[in-house]
Amino acid sequence: MKVLSLVAAAALPLLASAHFTLDYPYTRGFDEDLEPQFCGGFNTPSSSRTPYPLSGSAPLLIDSHHPTADVAVLISFDQNPTNFSAFNQTSEGQGYGLLKPFGRINGQGEFCFNVDIASLGINGLQNGSVATIQVEFNGGDGALFQCSDIVLVSNYSAPSNITCSNATSSASASSGPSQTASGSMGNPSQTGSPNSGAGRVVVGAVVGAVAAAAGVALAL
Ligand SMILES: [Cu+2]
């Protein structure tokens, strides 16, 4: 008994300090001590970029180690963005907004967001254009960052094991205590996106995630 409780006590600070991870598209690098820094402290683009849909709904997965957090997704179309201003204006001077506005997530574990890069209306994007996604996450201990370097590909779909729809199906509830939500609570820009069909899917997924979370709580 005593040994078990010691193990449990030791595990808590580890979980708290892990903050969050960016699991897809793949992170540039993760060091929990550097995570408060721009791009999580990794200042060089990955040598191999993750292929990512040029247009259409695309999944973005994080793993949260905080009970609640505010999450936003930024994107830069520079080859090597070095500051935040590269995440709201192209090198040609076109301004744009967040890829996903700030929204609150509740519960620890995996969360999936649907994003659509084409919805930003960036001029000149094409097959092979590069971009860097930066996730900003605040679980109460300050703003944290993770970056992923991607290459935009026409008619590309993420690997089938990395989709928000799969993760929000009832089958995912049996995979363990981690839960999955699509989009974010109270995310007004999603409903205003040109693709209203995707907006409806997001709303349904949030409801499903809440139901899944409730099921997990009952099971525990
Ligand atoms: Cu943290």
TrEMBL record:
Record-annotated Copper acquisition factor BIM1-like domain positions: 17-168
Entry keyword set: Cell membrane, Glycoprotein, GPI-anchor, Lipoprotein, Membrane, Signal
Bias-annotated ranges (Polar residues): 185-196
UniProt biased composition (Low complexity): 167-184
Coiled-coil annotated spans: none
Record membrane topology: Lipid-anchor; GPI-anchor
Residue ranges of the region described as Disordered: 167-196
Stored Pfam families: BIM1-like_dom
Gene Ontology CC terms, in alphabetical order: plasma membrane; side of membrane
Signal sequence segment: 1-18
Subcellular location: Cell membrane
Transmembrane segments: none
Protein name: Copper acquisition factor BIM1-like domain-containing protein
Source organism of this protein record: Rhodotorula toruloides (Yeast)
Gene: FGENESH: predicted gene_6.303
